[in-house]
Amino acid sequence: MNIGSGSLVTVPSSTGSWKSGDVVSDQFPVGLRVLVVDDDPTCLRILEKMLRNCHYEVTKCNRAEIALSFLRENKNGFDIVISDVHMPDMDGFKLLEHIGLEMDLPVIMMSADDSKDVVMKGVTHGAYDYLIKPVRIEALKNIWQHVVRKRKYEWKDNNFDQSGSVEEGDRQQKPSEDVDYSSSANEGNWKNSKKRKEEEEEVEDRDDTSNLKKPRVVWSVELHQQFVQAVHQLGIDKAVPKKILELMNVPGLTRENVASHLQKYRLYLRRLSGVSQHQNGLNNSFMGHPDATFCTISSLNGLDLQALAAAGQIPAQNLATLQAAALGKSATKSAISMPLDQRNFFSFENSKLRFPEGPQQLNNSNKQIDLLHGIPTTMESKQLANLHHPSQSFVGMNMQVNSTSQHNNSVLMRLSQSQPRTQLLNGANNGSQVSRLPLSMQQSLSPVLTQSGIVDNARGSVYNPVSQASSMVDFSVNQSKELQSYNFSLGSNSSGMSSLTNQGMLQEEVNSDIKGSRGFPSNYDIFNELQPKSQNWGLQNDGSTFDASLHPCMQGTQDVSSQLLLQQGISSTHNSGQNRNAPIEKPMYSNGDEIGHSNTMCGSQLNSGGGNMLAVKAERFPDADHQNTNIREQFGRDDLMSAFLRQQASVGPVETEFGFDGYTLDNLPV
Amino acid sequence: MLKSSKYFRSSLGERNFWGFTKCFIEEKREDEAADWWPSWTSLRPLDVSPGYVDEQFVELEELQDDATPNFVEEVVSLFYEDSARLIHAIDQSLENHPIDFAKLDNYMYQFKGSSSSIGAKKVKTECTQFMEYCRAQNVEGCKRTFQQLKGEYTTLQRKLEIYFQ
């Protein structure tokens, strides 16, 4: 039923009355096709009756496997799925992830269990809503809103498509997330979003075949200048996407676009403001790859990079001061995360080759983390491996972000220097971006990497798909598979996994960092891979939090146009990811919320350091849980990322890598 | 006590002179030799022993309509089937040595879910209690609570039987 099947669905402005996406029915939500899954026959019968009374078309089944086969046989046969959490044959969250990945349908979870962690898990896995049993008919009367909302955002994304523009990130997720955030009226308020855990969240990734190409926003220099102006006007601390959007007053620009761009920008600022010497050293090496990487992180396309480059022109000191003052700790984080994202790109490239390594990645990442201290060069391969764990990268990224003030410095440096590079990249990316998407899509694995446009050029196919939202769709499928494999490899499905995945992300991040410095192509690949993976992570029950973080990262990391795409792609593909992406942005906004930042980073970074990540994750995980529910996935990631980043901070090199553009990794002295 | 007027609007029974569902009154008579019981004091069968069912049951009643006139009955029988299976499984588990508390908890969780779906309040309370003992790994507490639960369950069955007549 997803709208995605490539056709533009006319989404009504409000409660669109369309049914399976292509037909606008005035009777909506009458006839909404619901699939109910619950092993309790009493409850199932009651739900069926209630839904019938709401004039919905109900199909019930008592087994998750049967439900999945229904859905697979009939891709467009359902509009929404309601599932119980505790089922004997398959965990409800796992089903949620599957549906998100394969069909991109909104899924509502139900349970008699109303404990916070379970609900949080629902959020992080991308459930659109969570109902407590016994369910009352009033609760079911409004489930159609999830369908509408989802479609609306998909439609919006599709329609926003501009030629050559880079998508911001996965829009799919954003819409719902956006809504959530908007409703909480506090985009920057992490806590609020947390409280909204029971609200609908973006759930599934769009990995559905809907090959909707997400419109991309090209952050031109002018646009970016406007953005920066708006941000400065509001004050870094108070700059929330909504207000920025208002100030910028650019028609056609959405809050999500601004949000993801803001994320990246924050990362960038962080990098500029607080780079440790280690990073500085690395930064220097990265200087060769200047701003481009930085920009890319935030999902900027080539143009963005230029913009960043321009921004980077601000004297390092000024910027640092500004950031230090404004962003404070969070700034550091965001800045860091941005660089991380970039790094991920690089490392992704390398990792691309290594994707299948999954579990190994963790190990690798550990090593890589060490390497990060030193020189990423060696880590590339490992990083790649790590990158495979998308989730990991995110974690790593976050961590890096958090821990590095150094990054800021390096970022700043990079920016100034990256101008030429950026342009180069931009040019490369721009051209390749479009073409890349299709390529990347094929690659499926690369989903992670698509972020950097630059990378795409180099890599070609690999990168594109991932970052780009549209491509993401395909990727998501691929990715999910990969991710899933990784996820499992990383750990069990239980939350432990998530931690692992998160860790993996960190590792990846580390790896990616290292790699990123090396060069774009590798990073991108990895990133792409990682990203999608991270998304998967989110979807999977395991460490739902983890996923969340992944997405955010992704969005934030798209420095290069491709980056944006990547994130979007990934996030879009992953239902959970989607949710994550959006939330991630939010976390970013809250100063105190490292995780948010890290989330963004995570997306792109996909954990590079396995070892560190694990440790980090343990620490962060709980945090993630407490994070906004919206971000659910993000939280996990964020935590991991933050944790990871912190570790990285101690590690040193890791951060620096992120701080530097992915591009600059090449020059990292060994 | 009249919990809610809507209850009396239930279509399950014919209306008596006072507009109250007759079945309740009849139930009363049957149950408590209420030949002399004033019709206006008809109570819901389940109100006779208050607390047996809660508002969820009323929800089920409201779901019932002309298209599915026996909806409540259908749901309740589904509940009986499912709970019979669970009770049997729990009984068996309690006989095992050593006792698998995780499994017990799982069963009881299911039981609790379905009993709350039909609004069986007291049964649900016992389930919660049982699960607590389970978590504390208190075998005696579990067994004792389970006996109580079975008692409540049987009483509920009795009440519902009357209700359906």
From TrEMBL, chain A:
Q: Which Pfam families match?
A: Myb_DNA-binding, Response_reg
Q: What's in the GO CC field? A: nucleus
Q: What does this protein do?
A: Transcriptional activator that binds specific DNA sequence.
SMART domains per UniProt: REC
Tell whether Transcription is among the UniProt keywords.
yes
Where is this gene product found?
A: Nucleus
Going by the UniProt record, its keywords in alphabetical order are:
Activator, Cytokinin signaling pathway, DNA-binding, Nucleus, Phosphoprotein, Transcription, Transcription regulation, Two-component regulatory system
Signal sequence span is none
The UniProt similarity line reads:
Belongs to the ARR family. Type-B subfamily.
One BP annotation, GO: cytokinin-activated signaling pathway
InterPro entries in the record = ARR-like (IPR045279), CheY-like_superfamily (IPR011006), Homeodomain-like_sf (IPR009057), Myb_dom (IPR017930), Myb_dom_plants (IPR006447), Response_reg_B-typ_pln (IPR017053), SANT/Myb (IPR001005), Sig_transdc_resp-reg_receiver (IPR001789)
Boundaries of each Response regulatory domain copy? 33-148
The annotated region (Disordered) lies at: 159-210
Residues with 4-aspartylphosphate modification: D84
What positions does the domain HTH myb-type occupy? Answer: 211-270
What is the protein's name according to its record?
Answer: Two-component response regulator
The residue ranges flagged as biased composition, category Polar residues, are 181-191
Q: Name a GO molecular-function annotation.
A: DNA-binding transcription factor activity
For this protein, the record's NCBIfam families field holds:
myb_SHAQKYF (TIGR01557)
Instruction: Mark out the compositionally biased spans (Basic and acidic residues).
Output: 168-177
Q: Which domain of life is it from?
A: Eukaryota
From TrEMBL, chain B:
| The keyword Nucleus is assigned to this record | yes
Q: Where in the cell is it found?
A: Cytoplasm, Cytosol; Nucleus
Domain of life of the native organism: Eukaryota
- Listed Gene3D superfamilies: HPT domain
* Pfam families hit by this protein: Hpt
Name a biological process GO annotation: cytokinin-activated signaling pathway
Q: Which parts of the sequence belong to the HPt domain?
A: 68-163
Q: Which GO terms describe its molecular function?
A: histidine phosphotransfer kinase activity; protein histidine kinase binding
**Its GO CC terms?**
cytosol; nucleus
Keywords of this protein's UniProt record, alphabetized? Cytokinin signaling pathway, Cytoplasm, Nucleus, Two-component regulatory system
Function according to Swiss-Prot or TrEMBL: Functions as a two-component phosphorelay mediators between cytokinin sensor histidine kinases and response regulators (B-type ARRs). Plays an important role in propagating cytokinin signal transduction.
User: What does UniProt say about this protein's domains?
Assistant: Histidine-containing phosphotransfer domain (HPt) contains an active histidine that mediates the phosphotransfer.
Protein name according to UniProt: Histidine-containing phosphotransfer protein
